[in-house]
Each structure stands twice: as C-alpha cells, then as structure tokens.
Specification:
By secondary structure, the protein is mostly beta strands. The protein has one domain: SH3 type barrels, CATH 2.30.30. The protein has no helices and eight strands. The chain has strands at about 5, 10, 25-30, 40, 45-55, 60-65, 75, 80-85. Strands 3-8-4-5-6-7 form a six-stranded antiparallel sheet, with no helix packed on it. It has a two-stranded antiparallel ribbon with strand order 1-2. A hairpin with a 4-residue loop joins strand 5 (about 45-55) and strand 6 (about 60-65).
Amino acid sequence: MHFTGANGAFVPSHDMPTTRNLLVMTRMLFVEDLVPGDRISIDGIKAVVRKQVPHGETQRLIELAHSSDSRTDMIVDVGVKIEVF
C-alpha cells in the first residue's frame, strides 16, 4: 500500500503511525492507588498488578500476575509513586 502526503509526494509506510512506533503514555500513581490489571514499571521491571494490600504500617505488598523476571510480588513503601502504562 502506498501513501501520498499533502503535496502529492510518496510517503513510505514506515513513516505512518503504527502501534509499534507510537509513544506509550504513562502516568504516575501512588502505590496505594494501584488496581488489578495496572501495567507497571519499577526499577526496570515491568509487571501486571494482581492486587496490592497493606504490609505492616508503612508498606504495601504488590502481588504480580506477570513480570519481566520471575518475581511474584514486591514490597513497596506507602507514598512511593509507580509508573503505570
């Protein structure tokens, strides 16, 4: 498939937006605001939240449904902001 620009010039298809070259919008949430299904990144590890629950007075236990390594959970201090995709 060929595309033409506004001036009639050929535009290669690799310059057209696709799901591979669009920027991913992220937001920062406090750990206590995470919900199941949130896709997160912490210290270079990408994961999907299964649930998060209190762990003592000042921490939260995040159970992971999937992660980029073999982790199944993480403990994070309350008030820490987490990058969510």
